[in-house]
Amino acid sequence: MFITPAFAQSAGGLAEGGFGLLPIVFVMVIFYFLLIRPQQKRAKQHKEMLSAIRRGDKIVTSGGLTGTIVKVVDDSETVEVEIAKDVKVHVVRAMIADVKGKPEPAK
């Protein structure tokens, strides 16, 4: 009529054997494919975009300023951008959000 304590304890251990970690692993796989992997892909594309900028490109900064790149130095963290006629500012490369237009290649 009563279940012995030894029999009751052994039945519970079987259910948690290897299946206790399965939901955690499943959630980690979902996070990787839905959150981490796309973010890494976007960061790689942004880094490639920043390395490909050149003089004459029209850009948009993270602050919302638009302008044309006037001077690019490869080993510098900044680029010189003309935001209005004869108004030039230095912008940190990481703050360039988008390259809007590529100029025509020189003949």
Describe this protein with a few key phrases.
107 residues; alpha+beta; SH3 type barrels; 5-stranded antiparallel sheet; 5 strands; rod-shaped
Question: Can you describe this structure?
Answer:
A hairpin with a 4-residue loop joins strand 1 and strand 2 (66-72). It is rod-shaped and about 95 Å long. It folds into two domains: 1-51; 54-107, Roll (SH3 type barrels). It has a five-stranded antiparallel beta sheet with strand order 4-3-2-1-5, covered by helices on one side. 7% of the residues are buried. The mean pLDDT is 85. Helices cover 38% and strands 28% of the residues. It has helices at 5-15, 22-51; strands at residues 58-61, 66-72, 78-84, 87-92, 96-101. The protein is of the alpha+beta class and 107 residues long. The protein has two helices and five strands, in the order H-H-E-E-E-E-E.
